[in-house]
Amino acid sequence: MGERKYLRWYNKVGYGSGDIAGNVVYAFLSSFLMIFLTDTIGMNAGIVGTLMMVSKLFDGVTDVFFGSLIDKTRSRMGKARPWMLWAYIGCSGMIVALFFIPVHLGDAAQYVWFFIAYTLLNAVFYTANNIAYSALTALVTKNGSERVQMGSIRFMFAFGTSLFIQTITVDAVKALGGGAAGWRAMAMIYAVIGLVVNTISVFSVKELPEEELNENVSRDEGEVDSPAGRDASEGGVAGEPERSESGGKEEKYGLRVAAKMLFSNKYYLIICVMYVLMQIFTATLNMGIYFMTYILGNASLLGVFAWAINIPLIVGLVFTPILVKRWRGMYKLNLMGYILATICRGLVIVAGYMGNIPLMLLFSGMASLGMSPLQGDLNALIAECSEYTYLTKGKRIDGTMYSCTSLGVKIGGGIGTAFAGWLLAASGYVANAAVQSQSCINMLYVMYLWIPMVINLIITVLLVKLKVEQANAALAGES
Predict the structure, then answer these.
(1) Best CA proximity match to 45, nearest among 444, 421, 413, 437
(2) In the chain, how many domains are there?
(3) Which of 58, 89, 137, 219 counts the most CB atoms within 10 A of its CB?
(4) Does 134 reside within a domain?
(5) pLDDT tens digits, residue range 349-378?
């Protein structure tokens, strides 16, 4: 018989809408924060990039820390939902703070203001919210197919939000008065939207009781689940005593032990690296507003390219659950998709140097279609990694395991944006210049065309090694 179903369609849609809130933070800042700081406030791109990089040192600590706290949380709302709910209030405040850097302050004070707000947003509030949101995948259902559906719906909202933000923001800022005032009004609007949608998402699902998460017997079918069929939410959590097969309690394990289990899981490490690379890829493309402005001559083309990139992603996400079932797993589907994406990104380079915008749009869309399966089933892959830890270590660390999602988003996005700032400064970029130097033009080609293709190639190589489903099946067969 099939797996028991835990969620209705509105639970999945409600959960997925939470990525509207997440991308109000991520897409807005990664696409427009740097150009606001350089061209409106007058800050130096290289210094801003350096501060972003230093800020990420704090993120490397807080991700696993908050993941462990979520694992240990006990409340009427569950483990993850309280963190997701309350942390977003801080996210909204910091979005606004980043665009309200006072123009009249001295240079040093402006950089201090930026660094504090950026660090609080990423290392504290966004971390807690995003890890909790990702961990809900393992806490509201034990059905593997529902997990994939949740991931696909989630990323449909994510890319739809990114598309919306990249399409309307430039013109909306102009309509709101332009300059610092226009950007600040836009930041407040996005902060309110994110806060409302995040709250709706929190209350659209309910975490399963601890007893149901831990049970090994299906109540509906009266059959014992095989280890391969159990998902990442069945066992105990970090900080809580687990029961051994003999009925006794195992000793509690804390952050250090959980971290050690994480880093002994080679598949988790591969996914962490891929997550960072994927976010660098996205952050680099989001810097495309410089490419559109100074090479293609029209900043509004960012929205056109956003449509070309995000619509195929959304279409691919719709079909990802079906394709995963048809291909009987995620491995071949993800690998073949990224081979296609890498080839098409190479063709984008050719079209870019030809100056052929229609071909750039076509090949960008085909590349995005190839990338979509991995985007849709990534949470399910992390769940497989959690299962691998359980099968090899006998312990569950769901919240800590899902810390790689927030870690990847922040470190990858931060590195991508910071790297772009360093490259712009090194190339001799001059804010608001009518014509940029040839060295700057060459650098913009490297940033927008070459770096994304190289990143896709590296991810393709990593996907060859990501055989966690096969490893779990083998381990389950041995038990």
Answers:
(1) 421
(2) 1
(3) 137
(4) yes
(5) 999 999 899 999 999 999 999 999 998 888
